[in-house]
Design goal:
This protein is α+β, with helices and mostly antiparallel strands. Among the domains are: 26-223, no CATH class; 338-374, Helix hairpin bin (Helix Hairpins), CATH 1.10.287.630; 400-530, Jelly Rolls, CATH 2.60.120.10. It has helices at residues 2-35, 41-47, 50-63, 73-99, 106-126, 142-151, 154-161, 164-177, 181-199, 205-219, 226-257, 265-268, 276-291, 304-335, 337-355, 360-374, 381-386, 390-400, 402-407, 416-425, 475-480, 501-510, 512-530; strands at 131-133, 137-139, 427-431, 436-438, 446-452, 455-459, 465-467, 472-473, 486-490, 494-500. The strands form 3 sheets. The protein has a 4-stranded antiparallel sheet with strand order 3-10-5-8. A 4-stranded antiparallel sheet has the order 4-9-6-7, with no helix packed on it. A two-stranded antiparallel ribbon has the order 1-2. Helix 4 packs antiparallel against helix 5 (106-126), helix 11 runs antiparallel to helix 14 (304-335) and helix 13 packs across helix 14 (304-335). It is found in: Cell membrane. GO terms for molecular function: cAMP binding; sodium channel activity; voltage-gated potassium channel activity. One of its GO terms (cellular component) is dendrite. This is Hyperpolarization activated cyclic nucleotide-gated potassium channel 3.
C-alpha cells in the first residue's frame, strides 16, 4: 500500500511538472509571437503576402527569442508608450525644474524614477530591435544592430536616460555628512543650482522623440502623399510650441540661477516671489514676443543676460518661421499638383501665342479648348494607366466611360469583354463648334463615339443628319479601307472618343462575330447614303 501511495505521489508530481512545462512553453510562444511581425496591412505591404510575413517570422526565430522585429505588436505598443512618455518629459521637465524649487517631493521623484526606468529599458531594447534599412531590408543580426546603435545614438540616449542629478545628490550627501553646518548651508544653494542644470540633460530625449516620429513615418510609408504633408506641418507647429515653452522656461531660469540681479526682467516686474502661474505666463509672453519678432515683452532688455536671451530667442524664432513657410508652401503645392501642372502648361501656351502674335479670336478659341479639354487639371493619364495592372486599368476605364456605355445602344446587348476591350483602346478628344471632325474624300483612320454634344453629317447632295449622345460614325472607311463618303461637323462643344484603325482591327480580330455585325451595318449605311434614305444611314442603332 505504501508503495502504491508513493507511486501515486510520483505520478501526481510528474503531472504537475508537465503542466508547469506546458504552461511555461505556452507563455514563451505567446511572448515570442509578440516579438515577431504581425499580419497587418503594414507588414503585408512590406513583405508582399502572408507567405512573405511567415518567412520573415521564421527569419526572426532563426536569430533567437529576444530579437524584436520593428513591425511586431510589442514594438508598436511600446513605441506608443514611449512617445507619450517623451512628450510628457519634454513639457514637464523644464517647467518643473524652472518654477519649483523643491525637487525632492514625492510626485516629482516618482515621475523622474518612472521616466528614467522606462528610458533605460528602451535603451536595452534598442540593442535587440531590428533596424529598417532602405525600403525592403530589415537588419536582424544582433551584432550588426549593436554596432550600429553604439556608433550612432547610444551616447545621447545613455546620457539622457541616466539620472545624473540624483547620482550627484547621493554623492554630495555623503560629503555633507562630514562637513560643518555653515559649509552645508552655503553648499546647498550651489548644489540646487547645479542639479537643475544636470536635470536639463534629460531634454536630450528630444532627439529620441524625433527619431521615433521619423521611424513611424517610414513604417507607415508616409512620404509623398497629402497626409504626410499635413503630419509634417503638425509636427512643425508642435515643435515650434515646444520651443516657445522651452524658451519661456529659459527666460526665467537664467535670472533665477543668477539670484535675480536688479536689472533682470523678473526683479523689475516684482515677480521674484510671485506664483508660478504668473511667472510662467510672463516668461512665455516674453519668449513668444521675441520669437515672433513683434516686441520685447513688457519692456526692452537692459542687462547683458536679457539681451543675449532676446537675441537667441529671435534667431530661433526666425529659423522656425522660415521652416514653417517652406513646409506650408510645399503643402499648398502638394494639395493640387494637377492644377499647378495645368497652370504651368497654360503659361507656356500663352507665351507661345504671344511669341507668334496669333489673332485674338484664335487665342480665345485656344483658351476655350484648354478649358473644355482639361477643365483646369492636367494628368499624364497614359502613364498612370500604363503603370496599373490590366484588371485595374479596365475597371477604371469602364468607370470613366460609364456614361458612354449607358447611352450607346451598340453596347447594350454586346459581350461585356468586347465592350471592355474597346473602351481600353479609346482616346478622348474635344472639338469646338464648327470644327470639321471628318472631311469628305480623306482617308479614314479613326471612328468616333459621341459621349456629349451634337454633330452634323454632311453627305454631298443629301440631307444633313444630326447625331448626338450615344451615336458613332466613321466605321465605314475602317472596314472598307476607302475614303470618307461624307463630312462631319461639330455643332456644339463635343466630347468624343476615337478608335484608331489599328486598334479597331485588333479588337475585331479577337471578336469575329462583332466584325460581321459592323460590316453588315456599314454596308447598309453605305447603300442608304449613296441611294435611298440618308436619314437612316447614320442611325445610332
Amino acid at each position: 500500500a505504501d508503495e502504491g501511495n508513493l507511486h501515486g505521489v510520483k505520478m501526481d508530481t510528474k503531472t504537475e511538472e508537465n503542466d508547469h512545462v506546458d504552461q511555461s512553453t505556452y507563455f514563451q510562444r505567446q511572448f515570442g509571437a509578440l516579438l515577431q511581425p504581425g499580419v497587418n496591412k503594414f507588414s503585408l505591404r512590406m513583405f508582399g503576402s502572408h507567405k512573405g510575413v511567415a518567412a520573415e517570422q521564421a527569419r526572426v526565430k532563426s536569430f533567437g527569442v529576444w530579437i524584436i522585429h520593428p513591425y511586431s505588436d510589442f514594438r508598436f505598443y511600446w513605441d506608443i508608450v514611449m512617445l507619450l512618455l517623451m512628450m510628457c518629459n519634454l513639457v514637464i521637465l523644464p517647467w518643473g525644474i524652472t518654477f519649483f524649487e523643491d525637487q525632492k517631493t514625492l510626485p516629482w521623484i516618482s515621475f523622474n524614477v518612472i521616466s528614467d526606468t522606462c528610458f533605460l529599458v528602451d535603451l536595452v531594447l534598442n540593442f535587440r530591435t531590428g533596424v529598417l534599412e532602405g525600403d525592403d531590408q530589415i537588419i536582424l543580426d544582433p551584432k550588426v544592430i549593436r554596432m550600429r546603435y553604439l556608433k550612432t545614438w547610444f551616447v545621447v540616449d545613455f546620457i539622457s536616460s541616466i539620472p545624473m542629478d540624483y547620482i550627484f545628490l547621493i554623492v554630495d550627501l555623503e560629503a555633507q555628512m562630514e562637513a560643518s553646518d555653515v559649509y552645508r548651508t552655503a553648499r546647498a544653494l550651489r548644489i540646487v543650482r547645479f542639479t537643475k542644470i544636470l536635470s536639463l540633460l534629460r531634454l536630450l530625449r528630444l532627439s529620441r522623440f524625433i527619431r521615433y516620429i521619423h521611424q513611424w513615418e517610414e513604417i507607415f510609408h508616409m512620404t509623398y502623399d497629402l497626409a504626410s504633408a499635413v503630419v509634417r506641418i503638425v509636427n512643425l507647429i508642435g515643435m515650434m510650441l515646444l520651443l516657445c515653452h522651452w524658451d519661456g522656461c529659459m527666460q526665467f531660469m537664467v535670472p533665477m540661477l543668477q539670484d535675480f540681479p536688479p536689472d533682470c526682467w523678473v526683479t523689475k516686474n516684482n515677480m521674484v516671489n510671485s506664483t508660478w502661474h504668473l511667472q510662467y505666463s510672463y516668461a512665455l509672453f516674453m519668449a513668444m514676443s521675441h520669437m515672433l519678432c513683434i516686441g520685447y515683452g513688457a519692456q526692452a532688455p537692459e542687462g547683458m543676460t536679457d539681451v543675449w536671451l532676446t537675441i537667441m530667442s529671435m534667431i530661433v524664432g526666425a529659423t522656425c518661421y522660415a521652416m514653417f513657410l517652406g513646409h506650408a508652401a510645399n503643402l499648398v503645392q502638394s494639395i493640387d499638383a494637377s492644377r499647378r501642372q495645368y497652370q504651368d502648361k497654360y503659361k507656356q501656351v500663352e507665351q507661345y501665342m504671344s511669341f507668334h502674335k496669333l489673332p485674338a479670336d484664335v487665342r480665345q478659341r485656344i483658351h476655350e479648348y484648354y478649358e473644355i479639354r482639361f477643365q483646369g487639371k492636367m494628368f499624364d493619364e497614359d502613364s498612370i494607366l500604363g503603370e496599373l495592372s490590366d484588371p485595374l486599368k479596365e475597371e477604371i476605364v469602364s468607370f470613366n466611360c460609364r456614361g458612354l456605355v449607358a447611352n450607346m445602344p451598340l453596347f447594350a446587348n454586346t459581350d461585356p469583354h468586347f465592350v471592355t476591350v474597346i473602351l481600353t483602346k479609346l482616346r478622348f478628344e474635344v472639338f469646338q463648334p464648327n470644327d470639321f471632325i471628318i472631311r469628305e474624300g480623306t482617308l479614314g483612320r479613326k471612328m468616333y463615339f459621341v459621349q456629349h454634344g451634337c454633330v452634323t453629317v454632311l453627305p454631298r447632295g443629301k440631307k444633313e443628319i444630326q447625331l448626338s449622345d450615344g451615336a458613332y460614325f466613321g466605321e465605314i472607311c475602317l472596314l472598307t479601307r476607302g475614303r470618307r463618303t461624307a463630312s462631319v461637323r461639330a455643332d456644339t462643344y463635343c466630347r468624343l472618343y476615337s478608335l484608331s484603325v489599328d486598334s479597331f482591327n485588333e479588337v475585331l480580330e479577337e471578336h469575329p462575330l462583332m466584325r460581321r455585325a459592323f460590316e453588315s451595318v456599314a454596308v447598309d449605311r453605305l447603300d442608304r447614303v449613296q441611294g435611298r434614305d440618308p436619314l437612316m444611314s447614320f442611325s445610332t442603332d
